[in-house]
Design brief:
The protein is mostly beta strands. It contains 4 helices and 15 strands. Pfam families: SRAP.
Length: 225
């Protein structure tokens, strides 16, 4: 599950780290909820050798959908079954994207009924990319909507402290393979796996993260790496 993440990477850092050729806007947001526009990295339609950063709606709306409200239910998809599910099969085969981030959040249920939020980051605080799918939906009046979804997998040993699932985080050397338009979808299944726990950190954060209006979310205490 991934229902909240952050993208507080300075534009120049994002440009260099993800080897971008173009950025259509850039916004530092430490607390991004579903139903809003999120950064995605796709290949340029005119030149597939170029990676470009765009902003798509978080909540996948398949091209065949009658109502875009379906996107509110489609913020995550299980990576292991996405290639076979009707809602995701075509996107998995043809419309894969990277969703850049520097953290995602999970909430631990405590014995007293409260929930403690945590940020999960890279151990060295570097940016990372979650595996995503995107779709292009058109209303009858011609209005277009580009939307995206985050793929998930079983949690690694670190994330399992707070949740049994986590986003599919791709190694930088696999970015090109994931985006490649001629990639065999079957061969990509091996990338749907937990990111190594030793490369990540679990950080306790303020309950201010519970309200997506709050963007001043910082770490309180690093508990595990």
């Amino acid at each position: 599950m991934c229902g909240r993440f952050g993208f507080s990477i300075p534009p120049r850092r994002a440009w260099e780290y993800f080897q971008l050729a173009d950025m259509h806007g850039s916004e530092i947001r430490r607390n991004i909820p579903p139903g809003t526009d999120i950064p995605v990295i796709v290949l340029d339609d005119d030149d597939p050798s170029r990676r470009v950063l765009r902003f798509f709606h978080w909540g996948l709306v398949p091209s065949w959908a009658d109502d875009p409200k379906i996107g509110y239910k489609l913020i995550n998809a299980r990576g292991g079954t996405a290639p076979d599910k009707p809602a995701f099969r075509n996107a998995f085969a043809r419309r894969r994207c990277l969703i850049p981030a520097d953290r995602f959040y999970e909430w631990e249920k405590r014995p007293d009924g409260t929930k403690q939020p945590y940020a999960i980051t890279m151990a060295d605080h570097s940016p990372f990319a979650m595996a995503g799918l995107w779709e292009h939906w058109t209303k009858q009046d011609g209005e277009e909507l580009f939307s995206a979804i985050i793929l998930t997998t079983e949690a690694n040993e670190l994330v399992a402290h707070v949740h049994d699932r986590m986003p599919v985080i791709l190694a930088p050397e696999d970015y090109g393979r994931w985006l490649a338009p001629d990639a065999d979808p079957e061969s990509l299944r091996e990338l749907i796996r937990p990111y190594p726990a030793e490369g990540m950190a679990l950080v306790q954060v303020s309950t201010r993260v519970n309200d997506p209006k709050n963007q001043d979310i910082g770490p309180e205490q690093c508990l595990l790496t």
